[in-house]
Design a protein that fits this description.
heterodimer; A: 2 helices; 71% helix; B: mainly alpha; 6 helices; globular
Chain lengths: 77, 226
């Protein structure tokens, strides 16, 4: 339960931070700027992709951790 | 400690920070690296992580030799396993990076060769273990070999690379650092992402090791009950 809340808080913080990034780039008026994901240097897309992968891996680890904890406590699988 | 969650949350936060800041901060212009210099936050921590994991492994190996407590052997071998995974990832990501900057994935560069040798020595640790059917002998022999394998990290990763010329950063002529260059490689902005990345990746290796340890201990308990 405690882990659930922390993970949720983390996710919210991350997305909040992401929108802050979007604000700073939107203030530029160059023609190559079409928002966060469509700006010319597609590094933002790369970032979202790798962060998605990271999130997937972390969720896997958390679930595995909980499964093992359950086993250790002798609860049903 | 291995069941506590605070350091696991820290791992997630540090890695998230690494992935976001690592890709978005301004990086210096170094040679022909361009944006690939950002690999610094991923490739290099693999090696730092490996070194920490192998160090933890040898500490538990020595603890096992002193006490013959089976749990120490489990700790030792699982940390060594994670260390090998990190080392392999470091080697492969290095080869990928080299392919586009040095011209080829493998140049028989001294650091590449020596790192591969160090990993092969650790791979032999597991082959040795699995060749011994008796569990106590396996653990004892394994622990002794672990110490030898760790000792071999000294010449292969830290001594010879300082002394020879190499395509890889560091080495002869660059303040004798075995793997990292000076100046712009350790650019101040990059440092703000690099060190948290090292901690985050290392903690991830520790987390994975502890999960495997807990699993192995559960198996051990079940087989001794049966």
């Amino acid at each position: 339960m405690h882990n659930c809340k922390s993970l949720l808080l983390l996710a919210c913080t991350f997305f909040a931070a992401l929108s802050a990034l979007a604000q700073s780039s939107a203030s530029a008026t160059s023609p190559a700027n079409n928002g966060f994901m469509r700006s010319e240097a597609k590094i933002n897309v790369v970032m979202v992709v790798v962060v998605t992968i990271l999130a997937g891996l972390l969720i896997y680890l958390v679930r595995l951790d909980r499964k093992i904890t359950k086993l250790e406590k002798g609860e049903n699988f | 400690m291995i069941r506590k969650s605070w350091w696991k949350i820290l791992t997630a936060v540090l890695l998230l920070y690494t992935f976001v800041a690592g890709l978005l901060i301004k990086v210096p212009h170094v040679g022909n690296l361009y944006g690939s210099i950002r690999n610094f936050f991923f490739h290099v921590p693999m090696w730092f992580g490996m070194m920490v994991l192998f160090t933890v492994s040898v500490v538990y190996a020595i603890k096992y030799l002193r006490t013959s407590a089976v749990s120490y052997d489990i700790y030792s071998k699982e940390y060594a396993k994670a260390g090998i995974v990190f080392g392999l990832l470091g080697l492969v990501t290095g080869a990928i990076w080299a392919n586009y900057t040095w011209g080829e994935a493998w140049s028989n560069d001294p650091k590449q060769l020596l790192a591969a040798i160090a990993l092969l020595i650790y791979a032999a640790y597991f082959i040795l273990r699995n060749s011994v059917p008796d569990m106590d002998k396996r653990a004892k022999l394994g622990a002794v070999y672990n110490v030898f394998a760790f000792a071999m990290l000294f010449p292969t990763l830290w001594i010879i690379p300082r002394m020879v010329e190499s395509l890889h950063p560091g080495g002869k002529g660059v303040e004798g650092n075995p793997g990292m260059g000076s100046g712009r490689d350790l650019d101040a902005t990059m440092r703000t992402v690099f060190w948290p990345a090292v901690i985050g990746w290392t903690l991830l290796g520790v987390w994975i090791s502890t999960l495997r340890i807990r699993f192995e201990q559960l198996k051990e308990k079940q087989s001794s009950h049966a």
